[in-house]
């Protein structure tokens, strides 16, 4: 049966006249919207929430959100747990893939012995960016400050430097607001053991008050850059591109199934899109491409076969 994989080029940014590339929004690697999350997680029992979406080749079962106790802890008899909270009108901050308002993840107080971990294997990606929406339940009892750290060894050790922002942020709103953290540490790139962590400060010792999280994402740029210089052909027995010229949408039909790397460059060799696909029918939206000639390069992950095709955008 044919598989369909839709790639939208809606995040493309125009190239600067000087010839330098403007950095577009990275590829979505993982996404949690929690709309199907209806559990109550009590500790110290170990439980976690898998991602709702993973990029091709990335297992959503290995990407986990975990609210767990620290060791050593602070509260002597905490009864902390996590559960779900119904969404509100601001619940769509950082929503992806058409997700609508729904449930969120509620990290409950007392939180002075707790930490929120995002297990996010970053294999094949670099220039990592963690984004999430967050709101506090109350300024008098909610956790007012979120402290950032990350690990490149599955949580054995933690780092507090290497992000593009401060290592903490205030929770200053009672409606969902966007938090965005760049991970500038190159060791975190292409790392199966990458973990991002949030701990809490201020108003963390009571039994009421909480922070709510939703629409958590990890984005990045693919490390699978295609560098082949073999002879360009307009077609390949294994692939076909239709229609050509392209107005808005076009499709690439593939004989071979399996994961593939897709790269689109303009006629000067500047990359305007890099992504992954899986299956035998790949649909692309080229609406934001300017008119001209482009080259789409496809590399099959399993066989290593590389095919290049030209197309014209009207």
Summarize the structure.
This protein has 314 residues and is mostly beta strands. The chain has no helices and 22 strands.
Query: What helical percentage do the residues reach?
Result: under 10%
CATH topology of the largest domain: Jelly Rolls
Radius of gyration: 22 Å
Distance between the termini: 32 Å
Class from secondary-structure proportions:
mainly beta
Indicate the low-confidence ranges by residue numbers.
1-24, 226-236
Give the integer mean of the pLDDT values: 81
Into how many domains do the coordinates divide? Answer: 2
CATH class of the largest domain: Mainly Beta
Provide a descriptive summary of the structure in words.
This protein has 314 residues and is mostly beta strands. The protein has two domains: 4-24 and 226-313, Immunoglobulin-like, CATH 2.60.40.3080; 33-222, Jelly Rolls (Sandwich). The protein contains no helices and 22 strands. It is elongated and about 65 Å long.
């Amino acid at each position: 049966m044919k598989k369909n994989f839709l790639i939208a080029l809606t995040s493309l940014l125009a190239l600067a006249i000087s010839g330098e590339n403007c950095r577009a929004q990275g590829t979505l690697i993982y996404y949690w919207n929690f709309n199907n999350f209806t559990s109550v997680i009590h500790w110290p029992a170990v439980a976690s929430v898998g991602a709702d979406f993973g990029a091709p080749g990335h297992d959503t079962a290995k990407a986990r959100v975990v609210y767990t106790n620290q060791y050593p802890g602070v509260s002597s008899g905490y009864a902390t747990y996590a559960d779900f909270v119904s969404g509100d009108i601001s619940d769509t901050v950082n929503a992806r893939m058409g997700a609508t308002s729904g449930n969120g993840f509620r990290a409950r107080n007392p939180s002075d012995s707790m930490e929120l971990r995002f297990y996010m294997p970053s294999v094949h990606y670099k220039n990592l960016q963690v984004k999430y929406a967050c709101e506090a339940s109350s300024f008098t009892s909610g956790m007012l400050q979120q402290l950032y750290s990350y690990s490149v060894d599955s949580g054995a050790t933690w780092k507090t430097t290497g992000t593009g922002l401060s290592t903490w942020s205030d929770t200053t709103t009672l409606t969902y607001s966007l938090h965005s953290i760049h991970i500038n540490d190159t060791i975190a790139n292409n790392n199966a053991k990458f973990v991002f962590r949030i701990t809490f400060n201020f108003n963390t010792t009571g039994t009421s008050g909480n922070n709510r999280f939703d629409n958590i994402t990890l984005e990045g740029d693919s490390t699978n850059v295609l560098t082949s210089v073999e002879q360009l052909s307009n077609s390949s027995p294994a692939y076909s591109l239709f229609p050509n010229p392209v107005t808005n949408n076009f499709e690439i039909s593939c004989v071979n199934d399996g994961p593939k790397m897709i790269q689109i460059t303009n006629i000067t060799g500047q990359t305007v899109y890099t992504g992954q696909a899986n299956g035998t029918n790949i649909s692309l939206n080229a609406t934001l491409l300017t008119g001209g000639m482009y080259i789409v390069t496809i590399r099959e992950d399993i066989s290593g076969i590389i095919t290049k095709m030209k197309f014209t955008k009207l």
